[in-house]
Amino acid sequence: MSHVLLAAYRIRFPFIYAATVALIAVAIATFIPMNDSARAVRTAIWGCAMGVLILGISVTMLGGRRLPDRRTVVVTAPVRGRWLALNSPASAVPSHGVRAYGQTYAIDLVAEPLDRDRPEFASGPMMRPAPEYPAFGEPVRAMIDGTVVRASDWRRDHRARSHWSGLLYLTAEGAIRELGGPGFVVGNHVVIRGHGESRQVFAVVAHLQRGSVTVRVGDTVRAGDKIGRCGNSGNSTEPHVHAQLMDRASAWTGQGIPLEFSDINVGESEERITGMPQNEQHMTSEFSGSSAGEPSVQPGPQTAYAKGMPTRYEAAIRLDIPIDMAKRHGIPSQLSAGELEELDTNPPAWLAQSRANRTGKRAVWATLTCALCGFEERSRPKKWWPEFTVLACDEHDASELPEPAAGAERSYCYGVGSRFFGAVDTVPPTDELDPDAPQLRPAE
To answer: Count of CB atoms within 10 A of residue 147's CB?
Structure first.
């Protein structure tokens, strides 16, 4: 009996959807004049649809309690840099309040980089343009090795619903999107089927930017490959990345699979872990090749605000403190150059104590420079950064980097800063003796 119930649970949603559409059609038809035969047909449709809807809801309530436990699958994070977790399965399951569309363990990620403020909710118009958000246009990457089974990027990017009145509009809009099926809810998206033991794992990234998807159905990808850019398509309040795993390619019948991200930092911790951030926790994705040692990048200049009022991020660089410390001690999102100068020359007690506690062994900020296009970014250096031979931003491929020196072996570190990767060239040790070096001879 339980097998029948679970099978019905898997296919319940298409039937609930069809019944709902039928009931809406019947409701509309009540305003159309009909003869007795047509009214009888309408009544029969209403009765069948209501029966299917009640049965579907009953299966949903009973089947959800009997779902088997699933093992957690560890994947690569779909984004690089500093992102805030919302609707996280680490805080509640189902994370989005429902199990429909395979999103039982889904997570939403919004970008909050250190060098750009994310617009605060209800601080501006009802609907902000999507490009005002730092997440919009950021690269989105494959979470697993596999084959692309679905790829869609024709839906438009709408404005963010950035005020309470915008949320009311979104509620009505969402109900209409539901009638279009899961494609209109998740917007532009890519689904990848895993290889080998993960063939029954399907990784989904959704709400992608229109026209940004770089893969097609049938393409083979590796975890970490760029497959699109973050957008604001589908049922979305602001530009963000929706990530989930499910056990079918179709969201109509797929059921969610628990997931964790590998090689991430949560909060301000520098310890890289495999896990999942909770709601309102920051996650920084850092997966790399290897290694230790000090980075080859150098601290940036003290003055980073040649024009306009300095931001909190620029103030943190000038004061040589972490951005979270600047927020914690009340430095505003923007301040005048005079106010920043006063903080620097006459530091308050907390800043003076911070400077006194500095060991000087590692810079608070470092400047990353792309060797190919010159793009620069200031970032907090990590203990795991090796001594990079060359750095490049994610607008370039590894094949564009200069070739390593003869005899050197090259490895790559990804997730450097918010959008860099680095190459590390090493010369393997050799046991061969230098023929020109003096040789030791045994005593006679």
So the answer is: 16
